[in-house]
Specification:
This protein is of the alpha/beta class and 192 residues long. A six-stranded mixed sheet has the order 1-5-2-6-8-7, with helices on both faces.
Length: 192
């Protein structure tokens, strides 16, 4: 039988622990890797009520780097304490939380590289980034800063692609989290 081996340069320093000290490399665990696109110059919507009960909203810079935004979204989706309807707050993941490692790739791609018509990022863009986390049993979660996506999320074999508008993160977290859990269930069960 003939077969071909190919090798790639991997920069493992680009792979960070999403939750410091939680991952166990020598354990038989699934490795969930968050990669991102966009989130440069991220704005956040701030709303307040005036004395007449009217709501006024404006946008302001978050002063967070794109890496910090990806970590914040990934950490919320994982929900290690199981209190905010993240992955580890629902079964069967809740009772099996010690069977998962969580990573993120410190370098994000620009939205210009995600020229997919549905507003998500194609695997040809984010999968090479995920390879910088050189672990087996890998599931990749691509988080895209695209509020105008026509397809808010999708799942495939061992991958989830989700558009998250960080500007409305506070008011929409629960919707994003439910969408993530739903799509991750497809990817994890390989229902694509």
């Amino acid at each position: 039988q003939n077969f071909t081996l190919s090798f790639r340069n991997v920069n493992a320093s680009m792979c960070g622990e999403l939750i410091k000290g939680r991952n166990r490399l020598l354990s038989n665990r699934a490795n969930i890797i968050f990669v991102g696109s966009g989130y440069e110059n991220t704005l956040m919507r701030v709303c307040s009520q005036n004395h007449e009960g009217e709501t006024n909203c404006y946008e302001k810079p978050t002063n967070k780097t794109s890496e910090e935004v990806l970590k914040l979204i990934g950490t919320a989706f994982v929900d290690i304490k199981g209190k905010n309807y993240g992955l580890l707050s629902v079964e069967p993941f809740k009772d099996n939380k010690n069977k998962f490692n969580f990573w993120y790739v410190k370098k994000l791609t620009s939205l210009d590289e995600c020229n997919d018509l549905d507003g998500l990022c194609p695997g040809s863009v984010y999968m090479p980034l995920a390879e910088n986390c050189p672990y087996g049993n890998k599931y990749v979660v691509s988080v895209v800063d695209n509020p105008h996506s026509t397809e808010p999320a999708e799942a495939g074999e061992r991958m989830v692609n989700i558009a998250v508008d960080f500007k409305i993160w506070d008011s929409s977290f629960s919707s994003y989290s439910k969408m993530f859990i739903h799509e991750f269930g497809h990817a994890f069960a390989r229902l694509g």
